[in-house]
Amino acid sequence: MKKYLIEDYRQNIYNFFSPTIVFIAAWVGIYFLLTKGIIQFQGLGVIDILIIALATTRLIRLVTFDSMFQWVRDFIGYKKTIVEENGMKMVVLTPVGFGTRRLLTTLIDCVWCIGIWATVAAFLLYVAHPITMIITIILAIATIGTGVQLLISLIANKKELVEFENDKNIAAAHAASHGASSVVATGEKCVHCGR
Description:
Blueprint: H1 6-35, H2 46-64, H3 70-77, E1 78-85, E2 88-95, H4 100-109, H5 111-128, H6 130-177
Antiparallel strand pairs: 1-2
Helix pairs in contact: 2-5, 2-6, 5-6
């Protein structure tokens, strides 16, 4: 049996209906813009979908994890109280209660929750206007750049780990050649031969 506090139960219902209404309104708005010719949409190719997917990935990361948006997450998700403790002023962050701010907090803290909205935003940026298409392409390129940087870091870390293991193995072999029962630590000189 699952039990909820009344406030959590109400918030769960709110979390379902509010985004659903916004989602329906957004699609009605998009339909209106398409039928009036304000947004020109002629279909998407594989490259277009790849650009939108990469831009979506960057938007998700930006909203849910990046430090430049931390102040936004704090502003939406917490009530701020300034207290004085031992002569120092401190900010105490208290999670918000029921309502839209809690819904937004849940949304921006959840990668899967923000994903659909980031996809809609990336899609609209891509098809709305050539200038906003450039923004989407920049977000996609940023994702590729981040991926390349992470790959390089992974390779460098793997290389350092292999070098460390090799040094440890050489030290162990050296210690064994002297009949030492303990392994000489990497970077230390051998007590037997000074190497």
